[in-house]
Design a protein that fits this description.
It contains nine helices and four strands, in the order ααβαααβαβααβα. The chain has 150 residues and is mostly helical. The relative contact order is 0.14.
Protein backbone atom coordinates (compact mmCIF):
# COMPACT_ATOMS: atom_id res chain seq x y z
CA UNK A 1 0.00 0.00 0.00
CA UNK A 2 2.84 2.38 0.77
CA UNK A 3 4.33 1.93 -2.68
CA UNK A 4 0.97 2.44 -4.39
CA UNK A 5 0.12 5.52 -2.32
CA UNK A 6 3.64 6.86 -2.64
CA UNK A 7 3.60 6.78 -6.42
CA UNK A 8 -0.01 7.99 -6.66
CA UNK A 9 0.34 10.91 -4.22
CA UNK A 10 3.85 12.16 -3.75
CA UNK A 11 2.73 14.80 -1.24
CA UNK A 12 1.26 12.26 1.22
CA UNK A 13 3.16 10.39 3.97
CA UNK A 14 3.88 7.38 1.76
CA UNK A 15 5.15 9.64 -1.03
CA UNK A 16 7.34 11.51 1.46
CA UNK A 17 8.85 8.21 2.60
CA UNK A 18 9.66 7.20 -0.98
CA UNK A 19 11.07 10.66 -1.73
CA UNK A 20 13.29 10.46 1.35
CA UNK A 21 14.55 7.05 0.23
CA UNK A 22 15.23 8.36 -3.25
CA UNK A 23 17.14 11.30 -1.74
CA UNK A 24 19.31 8.84 0.17
CA UNK A 25 18.04 9.82 3.61
CA UNK A 26 17.73 6.16 4.54
CA UNK A 27 18.36 2.76 3.01
CA UNK A 28 15.19 1.13 1.62
CA UNK A 29 15.62 -2.62 1.16
CA UNK A 30 13.33 -4.66 -1.08
CA UNK A 31 13.46 -8.07 -2.72
CA UNK A 32 12.07 -9.63 -5.90
CA UNK A 33 8.96 -11.01 -4.20
CA UNK A 34 8.09 -7.52 -2.93
CA UNK A 35 8.65 -6.04 -6.38
CA UNK A 36 6.43 -8.77 -7.80
CA UNK A 37 3.68 -7.97 -5.29
CA UNK A 38 3.88 -4.25 -6.10
CA UNK A 39 3.53 -5.09 -9.81
CA UNK A 40 0.61 -7.40 -9.08
CA UNK A 41 -1.20 -4.71 -7.12
CA UNK A 42 -0.58 -2.08 -9.79
CA UNK A 43 -1.96 -4.44 -12.45
CA UNK A 44 -5.29 -4.92 -10.66
CA UNK A 45 -8.14 -3.95 -13.00
CA UNK A 46 -9.87 -1.80 -10.36
CA UNK A 47 -6.70 0.27 -9.94
CA UNK A 48 -6.21 0.59 -13.66
CA UNK A 49 -9.79 1.87 -13.95
CA UNK A 50 -9.14 4.38 -11.17
CA UNK A 51 -5.75 5.39 -12.61
CA UNK A 52 -6.00 5.09 -16.41
CA UNK A 53 -2.33 5.99 -16.81
CA UNK A 54 -1.42 2.69 -15.14
CA UNK A 55 -0.48 0.30 -17.90
CA UNK A 56 2.28 -2.22 -18.39
CA UNK A 57 4.68 0.42 -19.70
CA UNK A 58 4.07 2.90 -16.86
CA UNK A 59 4.24 0.12 -14.27
CA UNK A 60 7.57 -1.07 -15.69
CA UNK A 61 8.82 2.53 -15.43
CA UNK A 62 7.63 2.76 -11.79
CA UNK A 63 9.35 -0.52 -10.90
CA UNK A 64 12.60 0.55 -12.60
CA UNK A 65 12.52 3.81 -10.68
CA UNK A 66 11.87 1.96 -7.42
CA UNK A 67 14.77 -0.40 -8.05
CA UNK A 68 17.02 2.56 -8.88
CA UNK A 69 16.96 3.94 -5.34
CA UNK A 70 16.39 0.78 -3.31
CA UNK A 71 18.76 -1.95 -2.30
CA UNK A 72 17.36 -5.01 -4.02
CA UNK A 73 18.46 -8.16 -2.20
CA UNK A 74 17.60 -11.83 -2.64
CA UNK A 75 14.28 -13.07 -1.36
CA UNK A 76 14.59 -13.87 2.35
CA UNK A 77 14.39 -17.29 3.94
CA UNK A 78 10.98 -18.14 5.44
CA UNK A 79 11.61 -17.39 9.11
CA UNK A 80 7.94 -16.58 9.70
CA UNK A 81 4.83 -17.99 8.04
CA UNK A 82 1.54 -16.08 7.89
CA UNK A 83 -1.14 -18.50 6.73
CA UNK A 84 -3.80 -15.79 7.04
CA UNK A 85 -1.90 -13.31 4.84
CA UNK A 86 1.10 -14.90 3.10
CA UNK A 87 1.69 -11.73 1.03
CA UNK A 88 3.03 -10.08 4.21
CA UNK A 89 5.63 -12.80 4.82
CA UNK A 90 8.38 -11.27 2.63
CA UNK A 91 8.20 -7.99 4.55
CA UNK A 92 8.64 -9.66 7.93
CA UNK A 93 11.27 -12.10 6.72
CA UNK A 94 13.21 -9.38 4.93
CA UNK A 95 13.15 -7.17 8.04
CA UNK A 96 14.59 -10.11 10.00
CA UNK A 97 17.33 -10.95 7.48
CA UNK A 98 18.27 -7.34 6.81
CA UNK A 99 18.45 -6.60 10.52
CA UNK A 100 16.27 -3.59 9.75
CA UNK A 101 15.68 -0.73 12.11
CA UNK A 102 12.14 -0.16 10.83
CA UNK A 103 9.34 -1.99 9.05
CA UNK A 104 7.08 0.76 7.73
CA UNK A 105 3.51 -0.24 6.93
CA UNK A 106 -0.12 0.79 7.03
CA UNK A 107 -1.13 -2.86 7.60
CA UNK A 108 -3.01 -3.03 10.92
CA UNK A 109 -2.22 -6.73 11.40
CA UNK A 110 1.48 -5.96 11.27
CA UNK A 111 1.26 -2.73 13.24
CA UNK A 112 -0.80 -4.28 16.03
CA UNK A 113 0.00 -7.98 16.07
CA UNK A 114 3.68 -7.97 15.19
CA UNK A 115 4.82 -4.80 16.87
CA UNK A 116 3.08 -5.68 20.13
CA UNK A 117 3.80 -9.43 20.05
CA UNK A 118 0.15 -10.18 20.86
CA UNK A 119 0.11 -13.46 18.95
CA UNK A 120 2.46 -16.32 18.07
CA UNK A 121 3.70 -14.59 14.91
CA UNK A 122 4.33 -11.37 16.82
CA UNK A 123 6.20 -13.24 19.56
CA UNK A 124 8.35 -15.06 17.02
CA UNK A 125 9.07 -11.83 15.14
CA UNK A 126 10.04 -10.06 18.38
CA UNK A 127 12.41 -12.92 19.22
CA UNK A 128 14.00 -12.96 15.76
CA UNK A 129 14.06 -9.17 15.28
CA UNK A 130 13.96 -7.49 18.67
CA UNK A 131 15.28 -4.18 17.36
CA UNK A 132 12.85 -3.72 14.47
CA UNK A 133 10.26 -1.04 15.07
CA UNK A 134 7.01 -1.69 13.18
CA UNK A 135 5.51 1.74 12.54
CA UNK A 136 3.35 3.64 10.07
CA UNK A 137 4.74 6.16 7.56
CA UNK A 138 3.84 9.18 9.72
CA UNK A 139 5.74 7.76 12.70
CA UNK A 140 8.65 6.88 10.43
CA UNK A 141 8.85 10.39 8.99
CA UNK A 142 8.88 11.80 12.52
CA UNK A 143 11.65 9.39 13.52
CA UNK A 144 13.59 10.20 10.36
CA UNK A 145 13.33 13.96 10.87
CA UNK A 146 14.34 13.79 14.54
CA UNK A 147 17.49 11.78 13.86
CA UNK A 148 18.76 13.79 10.88
CA UNK A 149 21.24 16.60 11.56
CA UNK A 150 19.87 20.03 10.74
Amino acid sequence: MIFLQGFARKEGPSGACLSAAEAGEFRLIICPSIIQEVASVLLRPELQRKFPSLNELSIARILRKLASFCDVVADPQPHIRLPRDPKDEPYLNLAIEANADYLVTWDRDLLDGVSEAINDVGETFRQLAPGVKVIDPLEFLTALRTRLPE
